[in-house]
Amino acid sequence: MRKYFGTDGIRRIANTELSPTLVYKVAKAGAYVLSKHTDKAPTILIGRDTRISGTLIESALTAGFLSYGANVKLLGVLPTPAVAYLTRKLNADASVVISASHNTYEFNGVKYFSNKGMKIPDEIEEEIEEVMDSGKLEELTAVNEKIGVSEIREDLAEEYVWFFIDLFKREFDKFDKSNFVVGIDTANGATYKVAEKVYKELGIKYKIISNNPDGININNKCGSTHLENIQKYVVDNKLDIGIAYDGDGDRCLAVDEKGNIIDGDICLAIISKDMKEKGTLKNDTVVATVMSNIGLNKYGQENGVTIKQTKVGDRYVLEEMLKNGYNIGGEQSGHVIFLDYNPTGDGILTSLMLIKTLLEKKKKASELTNIIKIYPQVLVNAKVSSEKKYDYDKDSEIKEKINQLEEEFAGNGRVLIRPSGTEPLVRVMIEGENQEYITKKATELAEFIEEKLK
């Protein structure tokens, strides 16, 4: 069991739980573990989102890296996928993103990326934790001319903009975009500058909201976790599509011209169908997680596309893609990975792939979503004892209730039980055709699990 790292790096309340002292230790230990096989002073990139605590965490990280002898490039406010991209492009030894993604401003986090621009695996995080608690940090102190140096390189954001220009400019110039307008919600987060630059360079008309960060308004009733803003904005302004990014820009959700939500599963269906038609969908396969809607599986069956499912978490999606040579995968939440271009979820890339499909097919967004039927999905948390949350599948009565429901929903729904990785909860998720009925069944099952595992 990891002590500091969770499912997506370290994420805690800034300056209390995520103290400068802890961050300093994470930096020093991380620099050692991620660069111990290099024979030169390592170079580490640091990017952050717009939270008020970002520069505080950045200072502590920088101190830890420099103390070890690593050199640091400070990228400033930049989306997570931009940092991942620059790590590979600049041949850096590692990078760190300071962000708590979709969480509110008081949280912040530390996410490590390897020299390949990928989130580091669980075992590397565990090794960093071992070094942090081993008492060896003092031995990893650089002295004299070995002390690292830092430099501010906010200009490198332009490299990320050019990444999109190289990918899309030629194609987008061919499309008739004269009457096509996109609504953008940047969540007052890391995409607030760079997204506008990309859309301008590609000649896409846009209207933008939630792009005035003040350090505490990131994800505050805006962005991909609060779609009501962009839904209303698109309908009121008669826009063709709305795009909402999250705080660190590694995912996006969309809404069609009527304000209907286009989630990650729908994005995967629309874009993978286009890729299959063009012969670019490797092994005719999409990688998703166990939380993906049953509608995605039915889309796959009807369109000759295999849907592979992994544990929840984009790192596990990526592992499956790398292992078997797949090139598209993602989560319902809007993390979508296009492995041909970048080995991490990229909100701007996902939105451009979606927009490109719209313009190419000359269809409305609502027409493209017809290829997939999303089933109602209900998630109810059962509050249980921390010691017993993994025992739900050992209790014969709980197993019997789950089996009965699975038989009832066979083919037209499903039941998924998943213990929380961080809280004393067992999550009960049921999908089916009738929202009221599945809500009733999910609540009943959650209450039964609570009673048995309290």
Summarize the structure.
This protein is of the alpha/beta class and 454 residues long.
The number of helical elements comes to 14
Major β-sheet strand ordering: 1-5-4-2-3-6
Silhouette: globular
Q: Count the strands?
A: 18
Q: Look up the CATH topology of the largest domain.
A: Alpha-D-Glucose-1,6-Bisphosphate, Chain A, domain 3
Question: Secondary structure elements and their pairing?
Answer:
Elements lengths: L9 E4 L6 H16 L7 E6 L5 H15 L2 E7 L2 H10 L4 E5 L8 E7 L8 H11 L17 E3 L4 H16 L8 E5 L8 H8 L3 E5 L18 H9 L4 E5 L6 E4 L5 E2 L1 H15 L6 E5 L4 H10 L2 E5 L3 H11 L3 E3 L5 E3 L8 H15 L3 H4 L8 E7 L12 H14 L4 E6 L5 E7 L3 H19 L1
Parallel strand pairs: 2-3, 2-4, 3-6, 7-8, 7-9, 12-13
Antiparallel strand pairs: 1-5, 4-5, 9-10, 10-11, 14-15, 16-18, 17-18
Polypeptide structure, described:
The radius of gyration is 23 Å and the shape is globular. The chain is an alpha/beta fold and 454 residues long. Helices cover 38% and strands 20% of the residues. Helix 1 (20-35) packs across helix 2 (54-68) and helix 13 packs antiparallel against helix 14 (435-453). Strand 4 and strand 5 form a beta hairpin. The chain has helices at 20-35, 54-68, 80-89, 122-132, 157-172, 194-201, 228-236, 264-278, 294-303, 314-324, 347-361, 365-368, 396-409, 435-453; strands at residues 10-13, 43-48, 71-77, 94-98, 107-113, 150-152, 181-185, 205-209, 241-245, 252-255, 261-262, 285-289, 306-310, 328-330, 336-338, 377-383, 414-419, 425-431. It has 3 domains: 10-152, 3-Layer(aba) Sandwich (Alpha-D-Glucose-1,6-Bisphosphate, Chain A, domain 3), CATH 3.40.120.10; 159-371, Alpha-D-Glucose-1,6-Bisphosphate, Chain A, domain 3, CATH 3.40.120.10; 377-453, TATA-Binding Protein, CATH 3.30.310. The protein contains 14 helices and 18 strands. A 6-stranded mixed sheet has the order 1-5-4-2-3-6, with helices on both faces. Strands 8-7-9-10-11 form a 5-stranded mixed sheet, sandwiched between helices. The two termini are 22 Å apart.
